């Protein structure tokens, strides 16, 4: 009888050690992390959630192509119907218009970007379309009439399937005494 109890105990301990320790994940833990809201034209608030970080890599490569003056790479990364709203009221519609604008601007101002931050975010709009955005902050150095001008830019870029669909540029001239916060 003693041998039977020992065998029973050893079998029980063996089976117990083979059990996996599963942790039940709540439905709340599976929800995307809400990081803010977008306010639709009709005033409806739409959740902004943490986005796919690969979109940050797309934007970094796009800025590198700009710094390199690589118009072919920029054309490749632009969607055919790209739309750009610039800081001084510029509106660029389509890849050909974008490349034409950049060709002249690169020649006139030799812009060079230094990225300070990238934030990947996304939302599902009222029509059920998922939109992936990157918000970037950069310092830009321009050469205007032989003088170096430093500007701070914030850009909101819509990225879809690795292509730049469009973006909004917000810009201001940096002050000489500006060291950041």
Give your account of this protein's structure:
The protein has 181 residues and is an alpha+beta fold. It contains 5 helices and 8 strands. Strands 1-2-5-6-7-8-3-4 form an 8-stranded mixed β-sheet. It has helices spanning 2-17, 27-30, 54-67, 71-77, 95-109, and strands at 34-39, 45-50, 78-85, 91-93, 112-124, 130-144, 147-160, 163-173. The radius of gyration is 26 Å and the shape is globular. Helices cover 31% and strands 42% of the residues. It has a domain at 49-173: Nuclear Transport Factor 2, Chain: A (Roll).
Outline of the structure:
This protein has 181 residues and is α+β, with helices and mostly antiparallel strands. Helices cover 31% and strands 42% of the residues.
Helical content band: 25-40%
Quickly give the CATH architecture of one domain: Roll
Give the class-level CATH name of one domain. Alpha Beta
Structural class: alpha+beta
Order of helices and strands: HHEEHHEEHEEEE
pLDDT averaged over residues: 88
Task: Trace the largest sheet across and list its strands.
Answer: 1-2-5-6-7-8-3-4
Q: End-to-end span in angstroms?
A: 77 Å
Q: Which characteristics define this entry?
A:
single chain, alpha+beta, Nuclear Transport Factor 2, Chain: A, globular
Please render the helix and strand layout as text:
Elements: H1 2-17, H2 27-30, E1 34-39, E2 45-50, H3 54-67, H4 71-77, E3 78-85, E4 91-93, H5 95-109, E5 112-124, E6 130-144, E7 147-160, E8 163-173
Parallel strand pairs: 3-8
Antiparallel strand pairs: 1-2, 2-5, 3-4, 5-6, 6-7, 7-8
């Amino acid at each position: 009888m003693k041998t039977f109890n020992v065998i029973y105990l050893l079998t029980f301990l063996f089976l117990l050690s083979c059990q996996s320790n599963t942790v039940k994940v709540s439905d709340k833990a599976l929800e995307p992390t809400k990081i803010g809201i977008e306010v639709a034209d009709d005033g409806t608030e739409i959740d902004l959630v943490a986005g796919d970080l690969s979109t940050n890599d797309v934007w970094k490569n796009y800025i590198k192509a700009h710094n390199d003056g690589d118009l072919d790479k920029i054309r490749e990364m632009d969607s055919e119907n790209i739309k750009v709203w610039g800081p001084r009221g510029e509106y660029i519609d389509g890849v050909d218009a974008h490349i034409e604008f950049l060709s002249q601007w690169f020649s006139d101002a030799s812009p060079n970007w230094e990225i300070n931050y990238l934030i990947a975010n996304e939302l599902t709009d009222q029509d059920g379309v998922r939109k992936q955005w990157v918000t970037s902050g950069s310092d830009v150095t321009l050469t205007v009439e032989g003088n170096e001008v430093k500007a701070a830019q914030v850009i909101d870029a819509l990225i879809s399937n690795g292509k730049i669909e469009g973006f909004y540029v917000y810009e201001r001239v940096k002050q000489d005494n500006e060291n950041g916060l």
